[in-house]
């Protein structure tokens, strides 16, 4: 599932490619993509609207329109956008289509069928149920080491599971949780409420560091209209410090990286560096 840096890359590239475009017509091909709207209401709410801005909140892509509405998108497991010529055949698993007056169309493709869209009034955007419950953005003043320590103190889950809770730590997913805990030198199996203040300070900085470095890599990528955003690190082999590197040498010591399952997800760590 895309995490904050990947979503940031999609947002930045969409902003370059489609800001200012007018949606001549829109079609919801797979209705369950937007469960709050039927096909007619979806098309009517977007028709003739111009895309005025594109930003994000957490992992949600927010496409602001000049008609006072915002199209909220969550990519989930496999959702992606493609900007293609109007006459070009559409790939399999195309679930939504946005036709522009410039002989182009923006497609939303989702092989796993988990993607989500919702149209909301822009004035009430951040009061929507999807956004109102999210934790502070990781680069905001609200997300401080004191905030992290206080939030962790209220959870008896493992630290890894705590970091994946978007109502506690926003934008961090499976990859960056493993990477941040390695940088901070913290055992992912540790109970969140046992996180000490010095370790909370290290973890807070590590979260910001791993997100920042990956956002920077994504910002340097070429914009590909046929695969907006794309994969920042491919399969991760050779670029990540610990993620996906089970059995390979720890970059800090000589021990092999271990993999364990936590809440049905893989966690990678070094038993020596993360005591």
Could you give a quick summary of the protein structure above?
The chain is of the alpha+beta class. The chain contains 7 helices and 10 strands. It has an 8-stranded antiparallel β-sheet.
Q: What structural keywords apply?
A:
single chain; 275 residues; alpha+beta; eight-stranded antiparallel sheet; two-stranded antiparallel ribbon; 10 strands; 28% helix; 24% strand; elongated
Mean pLDDT: 95
What is the count of helical runs?
A: 7
Distance between the termini: 28 Å
Largest sheet: 8 strands, antiparallel
Order of helices and strands: HEHEEEEEEEHHHHHEE
How many beta-strand elements?
A: 10
Low-confidence stretches: 234-238
Helix content: 25-40%
Shape: elongated
Q: What is the strand content?
A: 15-25%
Radius of gyration: 20 Å
Q: Which class of secondary structure composition applies to the elements?
A: alpha+beta
Strand order of the largest sheet: 5-7-6-1-2-3-4-8
Structure description:
- The chain has 275 residues and is an alpha+beta fold.
- It contains seven helices and ten strands.
- It has an eight-stranded antiparallel sheet. Strands 9-10 form a two-stranded antiparallel ribbon.
- A hairpin with a 3-residue loop joins β3 (60-65) and β4 (69-74).
- The longest helix is centred in the C-terminal third of the chain and has 23 residues, at 197-219.
- The relative contact order is 0.14.
What topology emerges from the helices and strands here?
Blueprint (H helix, E strand, L loop, with lengths): L3 H15 L3 E7 L10 H8 L2 E9 L2 E6 L3 E6 L4 E7 L8 E7 L3 E7 L5 E6 L7 H4 L12 H9 L5 H6 L9 H11 L12 H23 L38 E5 L2 E5 L6
Antiparallel strand pairs: 1-2, 1-6, 2-3, 3-4, 4-8, 5-7, 6-7, 9-10
């Amino acid at each position: 599932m895309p995490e904050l840096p990947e979503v940031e890359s999609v947002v930045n590239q969409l902003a370059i490619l489609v800001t200012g475009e007018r949606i001549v017509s829109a079609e919801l091909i797979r209705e369950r993509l937007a469960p709050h709207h039927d096909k007619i209401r979806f098309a009517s709410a977007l028709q003739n609207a111009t895309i005025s801005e594109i930003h994000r909140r957490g992992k949600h892509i927010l496409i602001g329109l000049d008609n006072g509405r915002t199209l909220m998108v969550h990519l989930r497991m496999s959702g992606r956008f493609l900007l293609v010529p109007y006459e070009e055949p559409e790939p399999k698993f195309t679930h939504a289509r946005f036709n522009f007056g410039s002989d182009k169309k923006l497609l939303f493709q989702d092989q796993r069928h988990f993607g989500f869209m919702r149209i909301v009034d822009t004035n009430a955007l951040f009061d929507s149920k999807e956004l109102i419950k999210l934790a502070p953005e990781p680069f905001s003043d609200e997300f401080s080491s004191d905030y992290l320590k206080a939030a962790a103190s209220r959870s008896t889950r493992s630290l890894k599971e705590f970091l994946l809770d978007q109502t506690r730590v926003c934008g961090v997913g499976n990859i960056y949780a493993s990477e941040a805990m390695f940088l901070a030198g913290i055992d992912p199996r540790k109970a969140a409420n046992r996180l000490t203040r010095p370790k909370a300070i290290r973890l807070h900085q590590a979260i910001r560091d791993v997100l920042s470095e990956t956002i920077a890599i994504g910002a340097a990528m070429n914009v590909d209209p046929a695969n907006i955003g794309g994969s920042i690190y491919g399969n991760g082999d050779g670029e990540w410090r610990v993620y996906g590197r089970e059995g390979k040498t720890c970059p800090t010591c000589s021990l092999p990286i271990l993999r364990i399952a936590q809440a049905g997800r893989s966690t990678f760590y070094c038993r020596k560096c993360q005591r």
